[in-house]
Amino acid sequence: MLELNLVKESEMQAAVVYEAGAVPVYAEFPEPEPADGKALVELVGAGVHQVVRSRVAGRHYSVAGAWPAVPGVDAVARTPDGRLVYTGFVTPPWGTMAERMAVPAQFGIELPAGADPLAVAAGMNPGSASWLPLSKRHDQLGERGLATVLVLGATGMSGSIAADNAYALGATTVVAVGRNTTKLEGLAARVGADRGLRTVGLTGDPGTDTAGIVAALDGQPPSIVIDFCWGPVAESTFRALGDPNLDVDDYDVSYVQIGTTAGPDATVPGALLRSRNLTLSGSGLGGTPVAEILARLPGFLAQIAAGTVHIPYTTYPLSRIAEAWSAQDGTRAVVVPS
Predict the structure, then answer these.
(1) Mean pLDDT, rounded, for 106-118
(2) Residue 36 C-beta-side C-alpha neighbours within 13 Å
(3) Cα pseudo-dihedral 157, 159, 161, 165, rounded to 10
(4) Which CATH number goes with the domain that contains 190?
(5) Of 64, 118, 223, 328, which one has the greatest count of Cβ atoms within 10 A?
(6) Is 33 exposed, middle or buried (0-12, 13-18, 19+ CB in 10 A)?
(7) Does the pLDDT value for residue 301 go beyond 70?
(8) How far is the C-alpha of 58 from the C-alpha of 48, rounded, in Å?
(9) What is residue 20's DSSP assignment?
(10) How far apart are CA 16 and CA 68, in angstroms?
(11) What is the pTM of this model?
(12) Is the bond leading into 221 cis (omega within 30 degrees of zero)?
């Protein structure tokens, strides 16, 4: 890993990581200079997302690998003229968990009136992970629209929001798959039994898990699979998607790989790709053109403003970054100025 010798001209308070895998500490850090089309904005709230933790741990493919550094990939910030914007794309070693950040002047999506800025800070990253492929698939299907949406890893915040996003885009049925049966029951209770939500509790047994997914699909191939798990969960799903009881005449499945919580690799049966109309792709940083991301984000921001997605969060002042970093209460930690 690289070590940076930063010139200390003017400083600000920030969450600072001094080596890969370390817990951030509240400390002084050089203030960024807003040059080359950048604008200096002030922090309102930044989420402690899973991608942020992975980058600090050095496990994410987008990690910069230079220390010391400020964590954080996105934030709600206040512009010099007082507007609240959702922003990001901060140049390392700076991140968004600081009093101020230099962001691209052209990237600042203004919050709609009435939007909770901290819900935006908590939810845009985990929620846009599914909104991007779901809205794209919705557009592709046109008048057919989304029918059944299969969400693998529905018990985390990203998966739970994916279910909300699917319904917001017109899905008639959501099949929510996950290991934590208590959270699946909570999701079902929150969504409501009349909205076509089906749950599958994973057991870790490949045959049982495959049979559970097959039963939940009930003969209807999904319009899209949103996969936050990969690994053996994906393999069980591939077997389910190859089940002969699924309607082959109406088989047009988009399988979108987003996360790897169950494992980094999965074996894809060649026979499945040859015998079914299935498209396998990924969605993530670098895998989706920035222009497309920016074009689709306002649609999800509008869902947050309308309250159609459930985003539980807990706020922590920046000075308590270590506490926010270790929080395990089932909500998204959001750091705000101290």
Answers:
(1) 91
(2) 5
(3) 170
(4) 3.40.50.720
(5) 223
(6) exposed
(7) yes
(8) 15
(9) T
(10) 7
(11) 0.92
(12) no
Which domain CATH number covers 31?
3.90.180.10
Tokens of 47: 């989420």
List the structure tokens of 75.
Answer: 């934030």
Distance (Å, rounded) from C-alpha 151 to C-alpha 130? 9
Q: What is the pLDDT of residue 63?
A: 59
Parent domain of 84: 2-110+308-336
Span 25-84, pLDDT tens digits: 999 999 998 888 899 999 999 999 999 999 898 765 555 568 899 999 999 999 999 999
Task: Compute the CA torsion angle 11, 332, 156, 182 (nearest 10 deg).
Answer: 150
Number of domains in the chain: 2
Indicate whether 101 pLDDT > 90: yes
Which three-class secondary structure state does DSSP give residue 153?
coil
Cα separation, 243 vs 258, whole angstroms? 23
DSSP state at residue 98: B
CA distance 154 to 262: 13
Q: Is 51 exposed, middle or buried (0-12, 13-18, 19+ CB in 10 A)?
A: buried
Within a domain: residue 289? Answer: no
Amino acid code (one letter) for 199:
T
Q: Is the dihedral of CA 5, 51, 146, 222 positive or negative?
A: positive
Rounded distance between C-alpha atoms, residue 135 and residue 176, angstroms: 18
Domain closes at, from 239, 266, 282: 282
